[in-house]
């Protein structure tokens, strides 16, 4: 205890570890919008992301209000159509990656009451991606086409920091590859320049804590599955 009788303030590491532990992908949002000033705070923090040669290749289009509703409607009409993202999907999920992907889906289906093998119900849940899970805001992250893989890597770091900054302010979010599968629709509604490559979307807002889709958390692999010590 401190001299004032209060517990010591958490260290910077403890604060960061808590944000990483508590953050999760929100799959049901309340309709109330986030104040513009709070969104700016998230963006200002994420703007500090490290990047290759400090290129800072990310540009972010944020849709809200009536414009988002038009985009949401357009995306929902394409929920059952094959997507053609501008960055390649994974060629294949193999081994442990396939198992983790399956486990995540089973956890979600279990949380929302979808029985194993119920393809109709699982398709409805999948379509929630294109409803943006009811989020009042959508950020589309793009990179400069000429920067290729490293531009996309930098944008991935930006997305991670966006999520942590949002978590620090109590704002829920979910990164989404599904919406990036329909780049023509995004370009039409958000005026994305031709020289930009769409990386992913981030739906964000206030979490609907009572929704069953927000009632599970995915585990993380132990370090010995991810780290190789050399020396």
Secondary-structure blueprint:
Layout lengths: L11 H11 L13 H11 L12 E6 H12 L18 H18 L6 H9 L9 E8 L3 H21 L3 E5 L6 H8 L5 E10 L26
Antiparallel strand pairs: 1-2, 2-4, 3-4
Helix pairs in contact: 2-6
Radius of gyration: 19 Å
* CATH class wording: Alpha Beta
Give the rounded overall mean pLDDT. Answer: 95
Structural category: alpha+beta
Shape field: globular
* Low-pLDDT windows of residues: none
At the third CATH level, what is the topology name?
A: NADH Oxidase
**β-strand amount:** 5-15%
Strand order of the largest sheet: 1-2-4-3
Q: Which CATH architecture would you pick?
A: 3-Layer(aba) Sandwich
Query: How many DSSP E strands?
Result: 4
Summarize the biggest pleated sheet: 4 strands, antiparallel
Secondary-structure element sequence?
HHEHHHEHEHE
**So how many helices?**
7
Distance between the termini: 39 Å
As a percent range, the share of helical residues equals 25-40%
The tally of domains stands at 1
CATH homologous superfamily grouping: NADH Oxidase
Describe this structure in words.
- By secondary structure, the protein is an alpha+beta fold.
- The protein has one domain (25-216): 3-Layer(aba) Sandwich (NADH Oxidase), CATH 3.40.109.
- It contains 7 helices and 4 strands, in the order ααβαααβαβαβ.
- Strands 1-2-4-3 form a 4-stranded antiparallel sheet, sandwiched between helices.
- The longest helix is centred in the last third of the chain and has 21 residues, at 148-168.
- The radius of gyration is 19 Å and the shape is globular.
């Amino acid at each position: 205890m401190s001299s004032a009788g209060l517990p010591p303030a958490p260290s910077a590491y403890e604060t960061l570890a808590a944000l990483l532990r508590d953050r999760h992908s929100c799959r049901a949002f309340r309709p109330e919008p986030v104040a513009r000033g709070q969104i700016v705070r998230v963006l200002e923090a994420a703007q500090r992301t490290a990047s290759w040669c400090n290129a800072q290749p990310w540009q972010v289009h944020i849709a809200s209000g009536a414009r988002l509703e038009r985009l949401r409607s357009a995306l929902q009409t394409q929920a059952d159509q094959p997507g053609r993202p501008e960055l390649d999907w994974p060629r294949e999920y193999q081994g442990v990656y396939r198992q983790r992907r399956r486990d995540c889906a089973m956890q979600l289906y279990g949380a929302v009451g979808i029985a194993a093998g119920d393809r109709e119900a699982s398709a409805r849940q999948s379509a929630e991606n294109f409803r943006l899970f009811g989020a009042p805001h959508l950020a589309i992250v793009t990179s400069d086409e000429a920067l290729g893989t490293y531009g996309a890597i930098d944008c991935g770091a930006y997305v991670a920091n966006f999520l942590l900054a949002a978590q620090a302010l109590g704002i829920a979010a979910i990164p989404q590859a599904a919406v990036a599968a329909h780049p023509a629709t995004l370009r039409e509604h958000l005026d994305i320049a031709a020289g930009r490559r769409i990386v992913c979307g981030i739906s964000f807002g206030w979490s609907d804590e009572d929704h069953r889709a927000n009632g599970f958390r995915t585990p993380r692999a132990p370090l010995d599955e991810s780290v190789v010590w050399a020396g």
